[in-house]
Specification:
By secondary structure, the protein is mainly alpha-helical. The chain has 10 helices and 2 strands, in the order αβααααααβααα. This is Sulfotransferase domain-containing protein.
């Protein structure tokens, strides 16, 4: 979500959804600096308001797989099993290689949105395999950029609603914890311990982001309650 000015003499408000940070920043630069382009294009400073909501990685990855790869078929011609029905070896291999009909995997969604590696699916969907240096860059960019947004946590809906009411009051009437939209049609199923371990090994960087996102939400709550 991007917010401009309400003053008709200035830039009108513009709202957008599911924006990729690096590509959006470059778009802003091109829109405002085309006559000045000389050599490399560097993104402008952060000048917009954003809301981002994180979800616990294991639950998010399972839901993503069942929607992107099963419900909407993905890019594979053969039928793909529900996430809970994948073997350990298939889970470890397919989470890295499988792509949705939009060309996206299911690992590291926060880095896909916030880091400069987001457009490179082979890297962002396999940060463990990409190496620690690249993974840490993606991790740090994600945490730093998400920290400039209002941060919510799906599993902490009441807390998220509170910070939205404080920082984005125009959205508060439309944010209801009792509303559940776009429910998946694929049965979720239970994961055994070995399956959980296999997923979490591949999602270790997303787990770190999720932990930091909870800290960000705690901080925003504290500030909103004392202001």
């Amino acid at each position: 979500m991007i917010q401009g000015s309400t003053d008709n003499s200035l830039i009108p408000i513009v709202y957008g959804g599911h924006l990729y940070w690096s590509s959006f920043m470059r778009t802003l630069y091109l829109l405002h600096h085309v006559p000045k382009l000389n050599g490399l294009v560097d993104p402008p400073s952060h000048q917009f308001t954003c809301l981002t909501i994180f979800r616990e990685p294991l639950s998010r990855i399972q839901s993503c797989w069942n929607f992107r790869m099963v419900q909407t078929k993905g890019t594979r011609k053969k039928a793909v099993p529900n996430f809970a029905n994948l073997t350990i070896s298939d889970m470890a291999r397919n989470l890295v290689t499988a792509r949705s009909s939009e060309g996206e995997g299911c690992l590291n969604e926060p880095m896909r949105i916030f880091s400069d590696f987001g457009p490179n699916e082979d890297i962002v969907n396999d940060l463990v395999g990409a190496g620690e240096d690249i993974a840490n860059i993606a991790l740090n960019q994600t945490i730093e950029r998400a920290g400039k947004c209002v941060v919510g946590i799906l599993e902490r809906c009441d807390d998220t609603k509170e910070v939205i009411a404080s920082y984005l009051p125009f959205l508060a009437p439309y944010f209801k914890c009792s509303n559940h939209h776009q429910k998946g049609k694929v049965p979720k199923g239970d994961l055994d311990d070995d399956q959980v371990d296999a997923v979490l090994k591949l999602a270790k960087y997303e787990q770190r982001v999720y932990k930091q996102a909870n800290i960000m939400l705690d901080t925003q709550l504290r500030l909103s309650r004392t202001s």
